Amino acid sequence: MRIISGIHKSRKIVAPKNLPVRPTTDMAKESLFNILNNHFYFDEISVLDLFAGTGNISYEFASRGTEQITSVDQDFGCIKFINQTAEKFDMPINTIKSDVFKYLEKTTQKANVIFADPPYAFSEELFTRIPELVFQNNLLLEDGLLIIEHSKHTDLSNLKHFGYSKSYGGNKFSFFEAD
């Protein structure tokens, strides 16, 4: 994986092979950040990266100037890798080792962008829990976005707060906004 833009543009990051992850492809990530670039000034927002995995999305926000980034993952190896990479590149990424659903149930931390990249094999019920918890606990700041990455075969358009979706290859991003 590589960082697409910002102060660390073109840097390659090689994650250990043993991590239980599926990083967002560079093509999909570039397209996502082109959309986000039209909504936000990256140096003025806070980000919550759920199911952070390798930290791929967090690194991209950090490279573009975001100072408040929290990455949540339940895998110790993923958290360790994100911490090592953030330290190596002097990125302001705070990590939390936790089950994402338990974290969302308890946190009061609000963000402008909440990005969730759960396993593609999640049941519809588990996908539904993500926006339910985010909106029930009022975790998005005003004009914020919840973005869920999933397979193009998964349809989240029936969920409350759904705005629109964009597909890139086998990846699909569904965007949710507060009413």
UniProtKB/TrEMBL annotation:
<dbReference type="Pfam" id="PF03602">
    <property type="entry name" value="Cons_hypoth95"/>
</dbReference>
<dbReference type="GO" id="GO:0032259">
    <property type="term" value="P:methylation"/>
</dbReference>
<keyword id="KW-0489">Methyltransferase</keyword>
<dbReference type="InterPro" id="IPR004398">
    <property type="entry name" value="RNA_MeTrfase_RsmD"/>
</dbReference>
<dbReference type="InterPro" id="IPR002052">
    <property type="entry name" value="DNA_methylase_N6_adenine_CS"/>
</dbReference>
<dbReference type="InterPro" id="IPR029063">
    <property type="entry name" value="SAM-dependent_MTases_sf"/>
</dbReference>
<protein>
    <submittedName>
        <fullName>RsmD family RNA methyltransferase</fullName>
    </submittedName>
</protein>
<dbReference type="GO" id="GO:0008168">
    <property type="term" value="F:methyltransferase activity"/>
</dbReference>
<keyword id="KW-0808">Transferase</keyword>
